[in-house]
Amino acid sequence: MLTKNDNMSLLGFVPALVVQYLANQQQIAQLPEKQNLRSVVMFADISGFTNLTETLSKLGNEGSELIAFAINRYMELLVSAISKSGGDIFKFAGDAMIVVWPPSIKENVLENHEELKVICRLAVQSALDIQSKLNNTTILEDIKLSVKIGFGIGDINIIYVGGVFGRSEYLATGDPLTQAFKSEHHATSGGQIIVSQEVFEMVSDFFVFQKLQADFQLKAGAQLIKNRLSGINKQQIMTFIPAALIPYIEIEQEKWSSELRRITTLFINLGIDLSDADSRLQHIQKVIEVVQKCIYINEGSLNKLLMDDKGSTLIVGFGLPPLKHQDDPIRALLAAQLLVKQLSLINCKCYIGVATGVVFTGVVGTSGSRREYSILGDAVNLAARLMQLAMTENKSILLCQKTAEDCERKIDCELFKMVQLKGKSGLIPVYHITQQKSILKIHYYQSKMGFNQKGFVGDQDKIQYILNIVNTFLIMDRDGKISLVDMDIERDFILLKGSYGIGKTFVMKILEYQIKTDNQKVLILESSINSFEKIFKGNGFKTIIKQIFDIALSKTTYNQIELLISISNGNQLVQKILEELLDINEWMNDYVNNFPNFQSSSNTNEDQMMKSIGQAIVKLFEIYFEQQLPEKKKRLYSQILDDEIDDINSNDLSSDKIDVPPIIIVLDDMQYYDQLSFYLIKTIIKKFNRILVIGITRDQFWEIPIISRKGNSRNPNRNQELIYDRGVESIINLYNVTPNEVIIKGIKNIQEQKQLLLLYFGFENFSDPKIHEVLHLKSCRQPLLLIHLVRTLLNNKYLIKENDCVYASQQLQTLFQHEEWLQIEIPQICQQINGPIIDSLSCVNLLLLKFACVIGDIFDIQTLFKIIPFKQINQNKLLMALKQLVQQDIIEYMHDDNENRYYRFVTPFMRECLYQSMTYSQRRSIHSLVAEALQIIPQPYEDYKELKRLEYHWSMAEQRISIKSCNTLIKFSHKAKKSLIVKQIQIILKTENNVKAPLKKGYIYKRSDKKVSWQFRYCVIDSENMILYLNSQMNEQTGILPLKLISTIIPILDKSDDQQQFRLKVDVSNWVKKGKVKGNKRGFLFAFENEDSLEEWTIFLEFVKAKSIYNDFVENFGRIQLPINLINESFDPQLTIYLQEMFKGSIKRFRQQNVTDQLSNKNRKSTHLKQQQLQIIQNVSTNFHSPNNNSKRLSVRFSAISEQEEKSDDTPLKEKIRKFFFGSFAVLAYHFLTHTFEPNYIILGQEGRNMRRLKKSRKHKNNIMQRIPNFPSIVEFDIQ
Asked: pTM score, two decimals?
């Protein structure tokens, strides 16, 4: 049952009418089901949305977020007015909404009719209120929105359909919706309200109308049902909510579910009338079931099902969480093709528009009230336009150029036409599908990536090694050294391995090109499975079987069925399995109808069945090699020479006289192959010497279909990994098989990187050689990733090519200085690699990573815990989540100190993928939190670097984008300026050793003593005084204001006609003029050129004044700190204690190991605690530094850790404290001596050189270290 919190969260995603029905019914027993009611319907469509999306789409990825922001803001205003009249937001449809007013529940018919009149009047009145307040409302800069409203009334049907994978859909149908849609279409502009004839008859006596063609134009606080409900089945409600949203709802963080994602959107128009629910309910249920199955088979997400002004419409997304894949556009087109085919079998035509791009995905609606999970953006609008174009052109599927390019590897698409679409400037290329590819083609690399047949840079020795094996095989076959029955010759099996994106497939394409160039007669069969084929038996060998089956058909006079019967020896079960492998006899229909519970014929007696299938496949290859042909034969092979035909008789087909070319089988994506595929590969290698098999596989990343993830295995990839390992092992263990494993490692050095750039971009050098080093590091030696990365930098003007010179833009140089890539659009290949990994994470782990990625490539646990605003994530959850992420190799543990722990990201571009998936508002809020935390928590960076990091985070937090200019603007807030100025002052004071160094200087205006005129003065602020000079030469002082004597600092914005509008009033009790002390209180008035200068000088004065007063206090009364705090106040106390305990445990374990090592090796030199176990690893980054850089102020941290294990004793507390302080100060003195000769950073408690000498001396048998007590402590000393 729903709890109180559930009532506030889950119910917001379901209309009140649906919730009411579920409360009354308790549970929907079986789908489909229908709910009847009689009420008023309003269809509200935002006017100006097309202009909004066209304008904001020019802003790039942030435009999608701003579209969602504008809709949310306007929707909130709409819902506020609607809810006052009792309306229920039934559906959000992009820029529109469908509203239904809950009907009366009175039993008397007349009373119900009168109540319906009242409801209708309230609904129409709410529409008037909306138009009076929200017409031409400015939502964003120069963007105004209005709303067109249409009304209908009558009998409404709410149908409940679907049910596949427990996901249900609800849909309102009936004549009132049709009335509302038609009425809204009659509105010619925003601000109009159109009602149907039926509504007019209800309310004509209360409002003034103007007659239109068939409708009428209108001239002239309720409580939602859901708040009165209890006892509703929670699981039933959750069937209507996307599964990806549930974890965020449970921790009450729905807003963090919003993301910017690259998805492929399908806009689908169904050719059925959903409004006729009375007579066609079962047919509607069947249609929705087929739609769900076709989408879920390809692992997409059904986002919306609605009936609106566009008809019966579906919105489907591929790449929505948690179903991100490397091939989402391909999956989308496969689903579209399957939808068209399967819906046609049940007499339902559909038209589909497909578009790919970065869109906003998240909650749309009003916070705390009605809302839905939606996808918004330019790509979604483009898909809708393509769907409408498909209906006009009577084409089943039309797609955009991006989708066509992304699918080019697997599906052939060609240009349909150039068209002008609504909301788009200029002609847009529209594509349609021609056929599905079964193999990869070399032209993919030519057309899309610019690859060619010139060669491949890197791993040339590996390529030559494979080529030698292939040439040896072909030479032996040509010379007749390999016979059809020779079983003694060694068989070759080549396995090409490498990580995703390393270029394995491209290396193979280069090899194939060279092989075909030198050996035109060789037959090359290729197999590359798509996402749809992964889940079927024999997935990896299906394509090979289809190709060899077609060749076998050409050699016989059999048709398909006759040949199947022949090779299966009449076994009907084997024949049926072969039909599945060959996609014959529409077995796919059975699969879709029985999904997800489809049982393949090959599941019965699997071992025996694999053997039978293997025998049938062997017969197909025998027919190819003409070892044995059926009696009905038709030899068509062109390689048989005319002069040899008469010498060959039907009984001599197994001889080598027939020149049948050998076969090279190339098997891509072997990491996905199932057990049957490996068995067939093994069988073919074992039976035929004239077949060379080359396998291509990954060695790092596995992507498993979601259907397989539903098992109970802790590691869903483990099962597939075992299948792969056993399959490859079974091939290698074959008699006389020689395994040749070739691992592609990519680009070895900078020189090979230069060759690759020269080959594909026409240049090899940059103006700054450091760019080569950065690219080599970021590309991880992967050639394809390097090419994608450089192409992205060139397209986005980060790298600028002029003639033969290529240099980095100013923006890229700035990012290099900050060592940040977060703002640079990452290559699509990185999103394809990391996207599925990110989507596999739990909600809490994902949120932690998003916050951590903003902190930096290296992040610490104290800062992370400080900036996380979620109350639900406590210390234990944080530590557990980080441990899980380390186990998943997403981050790695670096180092512990006594109060903090450090991690860093491992996977290339993982941090950038996480960052760019967040919305811009999320990024800014986290940057702000990080900037505030950097001021509090000690950072292991040099002062200058720390200031740059602080400035970077504030600039990212404060930047905004201008809709007019499309430029990013940065205007620091007062808080940001104050933070940066204080940091600058601290650095200057440290650098100058707290002497009177100038902290701020520049020209300002000063009001004359007689307050008549303004004087131009050069002002300098140091740590004690504000000094005024006549000029910047500073040779003549005109006044000195002691900062500690300043009483008030008041900035003034004067809007009068006076030229000096930005003024600063400073009151001081004593001041100095020309060397003379003026004892009277004086108020000074200064002026500045602009508001920013005024604010900056004000912050400087306020801080330095406080600093001066504090210094004066210390000088007169000394530095005191009571009580003594053993934990840094900037850290979280509980987390710090936990880390100290873990740190202490690691010290003990290290010492125990140290003792063991010394006993095992007496000659080993005496060792001390490794520095990297006690302080931040300095070698990780040059930005890490030693605190000893400050010679004036030395902050020393003492970690007193006992050499012995903790034991409880009865020693009085007073004695313990005495021993502690005696030991502490003694160790402190020794370490100051050590520090004199050892410049490196040494933590107190760690043995230094002098300490070790003292310990060796016999005079110090009772070493002072033995007096350190048995509990760890931290004492801070500030020495001036």
From this structure: 0.77
